[in-house]
Amino acid sequence: MSGPFDAETSPEFVLQHVGVMYGQSPAVADVDLQIPATQVTAFIGPSGCGKTTLLRTLNRMNDLVPQARITGTVLHRGRDLYAPDVDPIAVRRTIGMVFQKPNVFPKSIFDNVAYGPKITKRTGDLAALVEHCLRRAALWDEVKDVLHKPANELSGGQQQRLVIARCLAVGPEVILMDEPCASLDPTATSRIEELIVDLAREYTIVIVTHNMQQATRISDWTAFFSAEVNQAGQRTGHLVEFGATRQIFDAPVHARTQDYIAGRIG
User: Which of 3, 146, 239, 262 is deepest in the core (most CB within 10 A)?
Assistant: First the structure.
């Protein structure tokens, strides 16, 4: 089981022999991994190695993909996320997700953040909650005077921070991020990276990134994945190496990790 943390670092997730099949095609195979709480874990590796597919197993997003089938065990704080009595919708509230492209709702800035609490009939001061989440997402000062303007009028970086605020509004324990800076300029990327580091003081964050420099800047732990291609041309992702980010980039154990970090393979 990959999880070289000290005794004080408890795992948020424990994955045991996890695999994902799309029909008869294995997208990811036999992943053993422990992801620590209230830290940033980065998934890196070439395209097609199963990073996003594995990320989506952590909040049951693959349930929404036709013919997707999960094998193995995914434990969140000791509970099997795929047990028959577990509600996948409740899982997705507890384990939020931020996608590559900001998916703001066609509503006002205020209503984007308030949407989740309204749906879940959360009680209390809704305006105060919206303000708190926007402040937490480092967006309040930029939007406090335009809360009722359409969210799609914001810049790309602002929209991504709005999506993060919307995620925070339902009270998650974990935030999953799938290439959250891929469509952003360097300035907006820097703001999101600062936000991720800040949020990790309270939340467990797992991020998929193709940007190795980004992984070195913001993550505490890094999992490197690679893909094997069979005779039929099918790619199956495998976890190659997991460890502290500094160790992965400065002194990787596996030759394949060394080659990827050095740019010899893509």
Answer: 239
